[in-house]
Amino acid sequence: MNDVIIHDIVDRTIEVQFNNEKISLPLNIQEQIDNYWLKLLKNGKTLRRGDVFTISVR
Q1: Residue 27, CB half-sphere, CA atoms under 13 Å: how many?
Q2: 30-43: pLDDT as tens digits
Q3: What pLDDT does 1 receive?
Q4: Are 14 and 32 a contacting pair, CB within 8 Å?
Q5: In Å, how far are 3, 4, 32, 34, 52 from 17, measured between CA atoms?
Q6: pTM above 0.70, yes or no
Q7: Residue 5, Cβ neighbours under 10 Å: how many?
Q8: Does residue 21 contact residue 3 with C-beta atoms inside 8 Å?
C-alpha cells in the first residue's frame, strides 16, 4: 500500500502525492487531526483509528 503525502492545501482543496516514502506529518497538521478525532469522539461517534482515514470537507 502506498503512503499518502499531503502536498498542498489551497482553498480547502488538498493535493496528494502517492509514493512509497514514509514521512511524519508536520506537528500542526497532526494536532488538527487529533483535535478533529477528539471532537468526533466527544460528539458520540464510535470510531477507531486504523490504517486508512478519509478527510472530507463540507
Answers
A1: 0
A2: 888 888 888 888 98
A3: 46
A4: no
A5: 9, 6, 20, 22, 16
A6: no
A7: 14
A8: yes
